Amino acid sequence: MFDVEKIRADFPILSREVNGKPLVYLDNGASAQKPQVVIDAITKAYAEEYSNVHRGLHYLSNLATENYENVRGKIARFLNVPDEDEIVFTSGTTEGINLVAYGWAMENLQAGDEIILSVMEHHANIVPWHFLRERQGVVLKWVDVDSTGALDPQAVLDAIGSNTKLIAITQLSNVLGTVVDVKSICAGAREKGVPVLVDGSQAAVHMPVDVPDIGCDFYAITGHKLYGPSGSGAIFIKKERMAEMRPFLGGGDMIREVHKDEVTWNDPPMKFEAGTPGIVQTIGLGVALDYMMGIGMENIAAHEKELCAYARTKLDGLNWLNVQGTAPNKAAIFSFTIDGAAHAHDISTILDKKGVAVRAGQHCTGPLMDHLGLTGTCRASFAMYNTKAEVDVLIDALELAHELFS
Amino acid sequence: MAQAAFEELVEDFEFLEDWEDRYRTVIDLGKDMEPLPEALRVPATKVDGCASQVWLHPQIDGNTFHFKGDSDAMIVRGLIAVLIRLYDGLPLSEVGAVDARAEFGRLGLTDHLSAQRSNGLRAMIERIRQTAAEAA
Fold this sequence. Notes:
The complex is a heterodimer. Chain A has helices at 4-9, 36-47, 59-78, 93-108, 127-136, 153-158, 182-191, 203-206, 211-214, 239-243, 279-295, 297-316, 344-353, 366-372, 388-405, and strands spanning 17-18, 21-22, 24-25, 87-90, 114-118, 139-143, 164-170, 196-199, 218-222, 233-237, 255-258, 263-265, 321-324, 333-338, 356-357, 359-361, 377-381. By secondary structure, chain A is of the alpha/beta class. Chain A has two domains: 4-30 and 296-405, Aspartate Aminotransferase, domain 1, CATH 3.90.1150; 40-294, Aspartate Aminotransferase, domain 2 (3-Layer(aba) Sandwich), CATH 3.40.640.10. In chain A, a hairpin with an 8-residue loop joins strand 13 and strand 14. Chain B has a single domain (4-135), classed as Sufe protein. Chain: A (Alpha-Beta Complex), CATH 3.90.1010.10. Chain B contains six helices and three strands; from the N terminus they run H-H-E-E-H-E-H-H-H. Chain B has helices at residues 4-14, 19-32, 74-87, 92-95, 100-106, 121-135, and strands at 54-61, 64-71, 90-91. In chain B, a hairpin with a 2-residue loop joins strand 1 (54-61) and strand 2. In chain B, helix 2 crosses helix 3 and helix 3 (74-87) packs parallel to helix 6. The chains are: A alpha/beta, B alpha+beta. The A-B interface holds A 341-343, 345-346, 349-350, 353, 360-361, 375, 400, 404-405 and B 19-20, 23-24, 27, 51-52, 71-76, 118-119. Chain B: Pfam families: SufE (PF02657). Chain B: InterPro entries: Fe-S_metab-assoc_dom (IPR003808). Chain B: Belongs to the SufE family.
């Protein structure tokens, strides 16, 4: 039984006020709040169980290493990946995708090779590929979304040419809320021998993710959106792709032996994890994933689907509001502009005074903003702890903004 | 002591009871302000460090500081209109002496001046002070 009030009680920050009003936190697309169990786990890890990991043989080092390494299995379970050695810890999706760009793509792609991207990718899934374009002459091929913001999997597959070496695509747009049928894309791409990287930053927060069922080669997640600490994350990398990769960051832990004239690598996944990692952040992420799995991803998805439908009806009732992204399969992420001169920052300033936290701007999606012909939007992005009553507060605040700026 | 136009504003704001009315007034000041011609919206007049686009066009007339400005955000336009009442027409030598934070405080608008705010008011004030200092 999903009880949103009980869940809200687990998140201490949700009971605070901002600007004299109860906080209505609708900036979950940027980062989610943390439940008490995660906050407690961070404190406990530092207060009682802290040491560096993978080093030394003393009691605390073993304990910290065990706590840290256990999270690999939790992430594997969360993504339904049978072999936890296919999970590489990262500081977040940005590092995960950069690891693939530097470790896999720079090694295997040459001038003229193509990478297919959708126009709604986040900069984290664009800029690393621009590095390859700039440095190695790799060609970026863009696939547009339709007027509702939906992405036709066939359009992605149709873009595949003889030089296509990778498809890098989000499973859930951070601006439009569009859910992408990545499974169909992966099935079609596999027939043509093209690997697929899925940016799961947003999707993994809102729906059950089954990586083997999707059939992708890379699947990146970020901890801070998953109710866990910032600076934590992971990327699933298929064994075959790992075998084609060279290490990205060099340093401690990722090596087996280092000599003056020679260095040999540790086995994957540690081959791709250099230096002291985000030990406590990762431990916190493990607790956050336990918390989510305890509630049940199906239950979270069902609650958010209801919220999404409610918000959609309410927002549709404001005839001066333009919601960007109305794809049939859409998560509870709403980007909008208001008719007339109001700038996204104008709207968010008024919402903030009403206690409503939203994001305003380009949302790290320059190509999508170009495609939409907008300089920015306001974005309300929901999470498992949001309520219909909060949708109502948002609507009231929007009506005030409309009145002030019209 | 700020400009007479600013003192009038302070008097007006004294009758405003809550933030909604203060914002409404700021927004209206922006709406009433003459837009900066497109030809003056150039890199040289653009103020960096603002989340929205902001342009300030100073005009030094002998020893007197004048300026116009604009933004694509309505609240920021209003704040520029307030800045014009605060600074426009001052002798160059007096521009640096204005305590903008204290003056905005008299309007109940200090929250726009906190370091975290990205509306660029601080950047605009810095540009005004710098331009006046260079011309003096």
